[in-house]
Input
Amino acid sequence: MNIGQAARLSGVSSKRIRHYESIGLLQPARRTGANYRSYSERDVHVLRFINRARELGFGIDPIRELLSLWSNRRRSSAAVRSLAARHLEDIDGRIAGLEEVAKTLRTLVKQCQGDDRPDCPILGALEHP
Output
């Protein structure tokens, strides 16, 4: 199938497919006699895997590791679990940071009168952290 068909079936844009090939995340596609890319069902399956991993917030290097683990039938589930657990810890840390930001902004929004006066604690907090 051509790149447009692979993109439609996998949910990954043609541009992103070419990018994944260029960084070695996806094996370069076979080429037709006219030098068009040609993808297999396996390629589409890999693209779906990558897409789902991206949806879960995994970065490129962890996805490389996940792909390696996925293709290694002798892998231990402990290796997969460890990778996912590290990612979850990172997400939990980012969530905690965002909750602090939201708490601060909530307080500043409540303190701002939102009227015609120039005084604004939001700008003050940005000026003097």
Q: What stands out?
A: Residues 88-129 form one domain. Strands lie at 30-31, 37-38.
